[in-house]
Amino acid sequence: MDEDKKYLFSAKIQTMEAFAEFFQAVFATSHPEMTVEVMRGQNMTGLAITKPGQTLSPMVRLDILYDKYVDGCSLWKIFCEITSACDEYDSSASRLLEFVEDFELVHSRICYRLMNYERNEELLKTIPHIGWMDLAIVFYIPVAARDGKGLYLPVDNALVEKWGIADTDALFTEAFANTQKLFPGSVRDMEDVFKDYDSVLEAGYENEDERMYIATNNEKFYGAAVVLYDNLLESFAQGIGRDLYLLPTSINEMTIVADLKGNAAAELRKVLQNVNHETTEDKDFLSNNIYRYERGTGNISIV
């Protein structure tokens, strides 16, 4: 960062959201060759900075740095700390690659997530995947690191070749067990989810039959995949005594509505399409189709 641009760091920031947006803009401007994204989970906010041609990317915990800022650390010092963390990561990336290339070391951390099939056809040619509805099940490795930094490594064809794994179903079996263990899933009332973010709802549901729920994992990251977890949907459907409509509002969660006579699939599809158009970022898009879950049989179909 040029000395004459340090005045940018005299800004006064009042919220965690503004703090994240500030550093995303700073790094996008100072390093235009990089891809800079804010990653949000239930318990953390991170800044992922990817260099051209880089397979792995550092993710710096902004929530930890925001606490330092509130305690008096300057924005300039925090910028230098993030830059230093990225430089440190570059020096250790080769060692990390050696780790992930050893299947015996990494097999218990392989996880899966969902992505839209049609929009990612070119990418899917390069990664192992399994088709599901209009989606694809793909694989990644969450790699924890020290000092609040973490990595999410996609599993591609080159990596599974090094592992000597030719059976994608076997890979899914491994990932299916790991994902549920590492990222437990839940179905919660949407009102309760909003309360977690200190949102104040002016009123409750006018009709209990209109109640909506959110299915995601404990980090709210790649959480839409929980709809495939063992017994998660079945237990919930039996608990409310209804079949379910699943609305894929993001790669990070699914919205659930009880299947009632008043809930026409066509109307719910319009709701989903509006949410995807108005609020879901392109990188988080999952599908404009809705799915129906049948309790008792566990059957899921596009409607």
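Next protein, fold it too.
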Amino acid sequence: MKKLLLLSSVAMLTAANAEAMTWNRHVIDPYIGGEYVYSHAHQSGLARNLKDNYNSGKVDLGMQFYQNWDLEFSYQQSGDLKGRSPIDGRRVKNRVAAYALDLYGKYPIMCSKLGLLGTVGTAIYHPKFKNLPQSSFNRVGYRAGLGLQYDFDQHWAMRVVGRYSYVGAKKLDDLKEVAVGMLYHF
């Protein structure tokens, strides 16, 4: 976690010094996106024996406010995972939803279209465990990640981001995620 946070911070700070960046040019460029997210959850307590690999869909709404800086709001929802309750053996469904606010820094590498991403942010996680005590709750978590983004043209981009999220709840401790998706800049 410390290494990932350090690397993402370095990538974001390095983006501030990128040659391609123009601090004098104030740009606000809104965008939307859609992503597939694979998450591996570290679940504990009564949820430790339940399935912990989630497939999620994610919708992004963001704005690029300088050439290499983005602020993004996103909503993520996983599908239901079925398992058995460790208490009485009944069927249990679990899923995770998250509302997130992330800051992205982009540093161009190799060519102007490919960039290294660093991201830090926070999210409100809402895991739901049907047929377990305290079946759902909200918890604020912290996130950091690294990735790559390729800009096809001024409107379309594709990105891949690996992210670590610390939730710290009794049933959901942390998440390791890989997200792949497309962005459209207006």
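About the second fold: Strands lie at 29-43, 53-66, 69-78, 81-84, 91-108, 114-129, 139-151, 156-166, 172-185.
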